[in-house]
Amino acid sequence: MSNRLDGSVAALTPQLLHALQAFAAHPRILVALDFDGTLSPLVDHPQDARPLPESAQLVAQLGALPGVYTAVVSGRNLQSLAEVYPAPLPSIQIGSHGAERTLPDQLHTGWQSAALSDEQSALLAALTQGLARVAEKFDGVSLEYKPSATVLHVRRAAPEDQETALAQAQQELQDLDGVKLMLGKAVLEASVLHTDKGKALMWLREALDVQAVLFAGDDVTDENGFRVLQAEDISVKVGPGATAAVHRIDSPFDVPQLLQSLVSMRN
Ligand SMILES: O=P(O)(O)OC[C@H]1O[C@H](O[C@H]2O[C@H](CO)[C@@H](O)[C@H](O)[C@H]2O)[C@H](O)[C@@H](O)[C@@H]1O
């Protein structure tokens, strides 16, 4: 962050602005954004999250520009994303860390969501029971259900219970073969599908045939996305913490400046 000559605060470093110029000059680009902690500030109850109105409006503006694809790439399942994101949602939506994908029909990507096998459904039921056993022991620990995963939320638990609940949940599931565990911000997600945002971004790059990808995210699970990006791409970590991203902004409240810069450069 730096001060501008007029006294206002610039959220974007000169290096990021320079990279955005080069990115915006490509004929076809993908702007992919994480939801919680990036488009929306983090809140105690997942159902209360909303994108900042300026961000949502700028995403819509960007998506209407020729050669620009916009996507929300979220750990949420798509139904939950639709409930918290007022229309218009970007036409490309990646949910459940890549396990769910919605794209406009005319893109002919051939993507089809596969139903869970009987074995996967049984595993999902077993891991959900395991997480429920942990959740019931702590006030403020709750579960979120996704088509292929269950999430243990500890944000509303007493600080001293949060780490304990997360550790107990990992222990509870350790003997279940085939479960993918992902630690996020005050969450542990247990999934029966082994996908991640990196795989989803690589697939999107090819399906959309874009020359460059921008991906911004705040959480540990977004690191999978940052790691697959290449020299022509832009990775932006939102907030503090170790990261593989090349650029950083301080918070979701800086995302509008990032998007506005792209809109201006692309026009
Ligand atoms: O990939 P994202 O779009 O960032 O989704 C990641 C997880 O986000 C949600 O949890 C996070 O946000 C909640 C609301 O702000 C917060 O209470 C929680 O502590 C955060 O971890 C969502 O509920 C999860 O399903 C997503 O996987």
UniProtKB/TrEMBL annotation:
Give the InterPro entries listed for this entry. HAD-like_sf, HAD-SF_hydro_IIB, HAD_sf, OTSB-like, Trehalose_PPase
- The broad enzyme category this protein falls into is hydrolase
Recite the UniProt keywords alphabetically. Hydrolase, Magnesium, Metal-binding
Source superkingdom: Bacteria
Q: Which GO terms describe its biological process?
A: trehalose biosynthetic process
Cofactor(s) in the UniProt record:
Mg(2+)
Q: Name one Pfam family in it.
A: Trehalose_PPase
Q: Which GO terms describe its molecular function?
A: metal ion binding; trehalose-phosphatase activity
Q: Does the keyword Hydrolase apply?
A: yes
- Catalyzed reaction equations: alpha,alpha-trehalose 6-phosphate + H2O = alpha,alpha-trehalose + phosphate
**EC no.?**
3.1.3.12
**Keyword set includes Hydrolase:** yes
Pathway field of the UniProt record reads: Glycan biosynthesis; trehalose biosynthesis
Q: Which family does it belong to?
A: Belongs to the trehalose phosphatase family.
What biological function has been recorded for the protein in this entry? Removes the phosphate from trehalose 6-phosphate to produce free trehalose.
Q: Could you identify this protein by its name?
A: Trehalose 6-phosphate phosphatase
